[in-house]
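Worked example 2:
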Amino acid sequence: MDSPVNVSTVLTLKGFNLSSVGVFPAFLFSTLSYLTILFCNLTLMLTIVLNKALHQPMYLILLNLPINDLTGSSAVFSQIMKETLTNSGTIQYTACVIQAFFIHIYATGSVLILTAMAYDRYIAICCPLQYNAIMTNANIMRLITAVWLSCFILIGVLFYLLLRLPHCRSEISNTYCDNPSLLTLVCADTSINNVYGLVVVAVTQLFANGMILYTYLQILITCFRSKSSDTKAKALQTCATHLTVFLLLECFGLFTIISYRLQNLSPHFRRFLGLMALIFPPALNPLIYGLKTKEIREITIHSLRKKIHSF
């Protein structure tokens, strides 16, 4: 017999089991983590926006990465900081759905933005003579629009399929809300949701990994054929930076997806993996690009020195 539909708008988050002693350290850690992510990503964004030397296709596409990282981080940390401070263990159903929606936008956006950046590097290194003709401002805007539109359509359909179903449970065994957690509340057949979710993951991963594998093979071939050691070194350094960020994201994402499929896995470890996937990439991405990309590094250091000397 089916359970009655629960019309309660308040959900219980079982992932938070903080003692009175642990509330302040947890709040301090989450606040400092978010402030670090905010500072690093805003610094990268402002460096690109305020310096005309960086108004190039590569950096205009890169600009979307910190925007996307802040979207995911803000969705997660706003709830975590509130919860660690109040220790209420509850969240409104609407707030939970909104949080989950933006977390999935972040996850999909990260993959597609990095794929777009790989395409840009492929054109720049393998087709340098056609680069300015292909990567015009209009085409860059089309590429960026296609990335964000794809994110909102794919995730919009995912949450339409979720919201059409009634829910009869109110406990989420996680520290934040996402689609798998919300599906555990549903008291109806979720086969369509599960199939669609797996198809979205499979298609985006196959597209992203296929595109990056192809572009990087072509880039490596072009670099090894090049007679200019400076060009080769610069190209490989740029690609290494991009590949580091992509592999970091893929590893955390893969571990998180697998953790939901392993029933015997400790729920505490699953929560830890989920949080790490939402903390580490947004914190490390701007640092990796800032330290490894010569133009960004030099402009950032020069700006900081001017600020220090002005005092």
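The chain has eleven helices and three strands. The chain has one domain: 20-310.
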